Amino acid sequence: MNNPENGYHISFFKPTTEQARFNRNLVIWLASIWFVAIFGFQIALRVLEEPTPEPSYLAFQNAWQDVKAGTADAQDLEDFGTAALSVLGKVAIEENERTLLSTSMSWAFFQLLTPDQQIPMKEKVAELEQIESGISDIRDMGYLQAKGNLVEVTAAVFNLDRNDPRTMILPIELSTQYPAELSEEAVEELPGIMEKYLVHNQSFLTDARFLGFPFHYFYTAVFLLILFVGLCWLYCVRADRRNLILGIED
Predict the structure, then answer these.
(1) Where are the domains of the chain?
(2) Burial level of 15, CB count in 10 A (0-12/13-18/19+)?
(3) CB–CB of 24/13 below 8 Å?
């Protein structure tokens, strides 16, 4: 009859030898350091974070009440349109939100033009839309030329500096299918959309920089990797030293 009490039945949580107990305690100790380093930092980020608006959101807030009431002046329309354009320049935007932002921004854009200016501008935008609908590659030379021809003239309407990256986004986000006035949907949805994309949670952990990197990026992308390798090295050193004390040779 086989004896169930043999050396092959080993439990990490119920060690039977001094070496096994040492190994278990060392693993738990190092894993605890790793756990605290990862989740402790994430908890600190959540505890310390505060909603911080982008400048475009502040400009939107200042202009929104007049825009909504239909009493906006040229500066209000500029602030409203460029704030919407700031969101349109972001990568991850839901399609229905992009459409609403695009038409609302286009409405503000054409409101800033006189009737005599609107007609030739609509023709140029419509030409770009037609070219865009017929190409499969945005590197198409005809498309790039038509877009380039619109960059400076459209940027001037919103008083955008030529070095502002939004100048390259404006021509392709303009639409000739804009409403005569903001729709009820736009009035209801736009404040929430703008807050969603232009207000971010920040703290000194995200604003500080270390070795040229944002601190939170350095911590998660560099420091945690170094820490993991260091903990593995420490485990090997401590385990080997314990083996020598106990007279155990691999």
Answers:
(1) 31-49+207-246, 52-202
(2) middle
(3) yes
Query: Torsion angle, CA of 144/145/149/152, rounded to 10 degrees?
Result: 40
Helices (H) and strands (E) in the chain, counts: 12, 4
The answer to whether 103 touches 177, Cβ cutoff 8 Å, is yes
Contact between residue 83 and residue 194 where contact means Cβ atoms under 8 Å apart: yes
Extract long-range pairs of 185-191: CB within 8 Å, 24+ residues apart: 185/100, 186/100, 186/103, 186/104, 187/68, 189/97, 189/100, 190/64, 190/84, 190/100, 190/101, 190/104, 191/64
What pTM did the predictor assign?
Answer: 0.70
Question: Angle 224-246/18-35 helices, nearest 10 degrees?
Answer: 170
d(CA 122, CA 115): 11
Q: List, for residues 66-91, the tens digit of each pLDDT value.
A: 999 989 999 999 999 999 999 999 98
User: For position 49, what pLDDT does the model report?
Assistant: 87
Contact 135, 144 (CB under 8 A): no
Strands (E), the chain: 50-53, 199-202, 209-210, 213-214
With contact defined as beta carbons under 8 Å apart, do 147 and 128 qualify?
yes
Which has the closest alpha carbon to 82: 169, 187, 146?
A: 169
Contact in structure between 223 and 38 (CB atoms under 8 Å):
no
pLDDT at 127 over 60: yes
Q: If DSSP codes are grouped into helix, strand and coil, which group holds residue 160?
A: coil
**In degrees to the nearest 10, what's the CA dihedral of 169, 161, 156, 165?**
0
pLDDT of residue 5: 52
- Cβ-contact 63, 72 below 8 angstroms: yes
